[in-house]
Amino acid sequence: MSLISNVTNVSGMKRGWKILLLMSLFFVEVSAQKSPQFSQYVEYQSAINPAAVAVDDMMSVGGIYRLQWIGFKGAPKDLLFSIAYPFKVGDTNHGVGLIFSSDDIGLFKNQSVLLQYSYKFNLPTGSLSLGLNVGFISQTVDKESVDLTGGAGELMEGDEYHQASDPFIDGFTAEGYSDVAFDASFGCMYRTDVSFVGLSVQHLTASAVELGADNYQLYIPRSYHLFGGYTFETHNPQWTVTPAAYVKTDLSTWQAEVTGLLEYSKRVRGGISYRFGDSFVFLFGIDIIQGLHLGYSYDLPTSKMIRSGGSHEVSLRYCFKPQFTKKNKYKSERIL
After folding, report:
1. What is the CATH number of the domain that holds 305?
2. Quick one: 84 exposed, middle or buried, by C-beta within 10 A (0-12, 13-18, 19+)?
3. What's the pLDDT at 147?
4. Which structural domain, as residue segments, surrounds residue 130?
5. Which end of the chain is more exposed for a tag (fewer CB within 10 A), N or C?
6. Number of separate domains in the chain
7. pLDDT digits (tens, 9 = 90+) for 36-88
8. What ranges in the chain are assigned the alpha helix state H?
9. Contact criterion met (CB below 8 Å) for 202 and 185
10. In a domain, 123, yes or no
11. What is the pLDDT of residues 140-174, one digit of tens each?
């Protein structure tokens, strides 16, 4: 499947470059990563913005698995699974979906299950979609894996970090390793044949989970996500180029990346991203058969803070046009 339709013109190209240039100037001010991310964000826009659910009138089932910072102890392991279904009510277009995500990092395991809904307005120049996520997020702490190298209330010689009587660790009980909180997100997206731009707010409720007998709370900050892209046609209509950009923030930390994708015959694509202050990302994708997409990305770290073998990410998604209408039935005149 094509990322975006490859029809464009000279004036559209100039307008697209201006938009991406302004976004890039804004990105220069960003810095470190805080939230887990998926490098293949162009292919999995509904993971960032609920307004992208079934926005292209295709039913889809797919998932991503990411191993981050290979060789780094306690590094994140991320899994995402999603299903989306488009439907009509009269002349209006809607989409529903379900998304499950799991993030393991160090002693913490975060999981969420969210129902997704989107509503699409057709405009003279494109379409505007509004979307909502509603569900639950849980956080679990693996107390048994805590590395306590010190004695009772004492630090071992040369150890500046661990002690057995850490009040936070002691506060956990058998029933206090995990908690569940309500979660919601909202997003909007504008799309044309050659461009897309979306803005979403995740963790609208800014909930907190309580862990341990002494009511330790871990705050889930509200975060803001902006992404967009524009597809240009080359002299050879078989080839298209799509620059894209993505920035997210919780207003205390920032993360951003810019991406360039090259696609051949609406079937094979590859590209490179730069995540500011973090890594270069090499991307590859292919439609194995019509509607079945396989993707892979490799992150090459550039940050001096993380020494690792890089990050690997694999995705698989199947898209098809849902057709559940009954076939026409004919009654034989011989059987009366």
Report:
1. 2.40.160.40
2. buried
3. 60
4. 10-148+180-320
5. C
6. 1
7. 579 999 989 999 999 999 888 889 999 999 999 888 777 889 999 999 999 99
8. 10-27, 167-170
9. yes
10. yes
11. 877 666 665 555 545 555 555 555 566 666 655 55
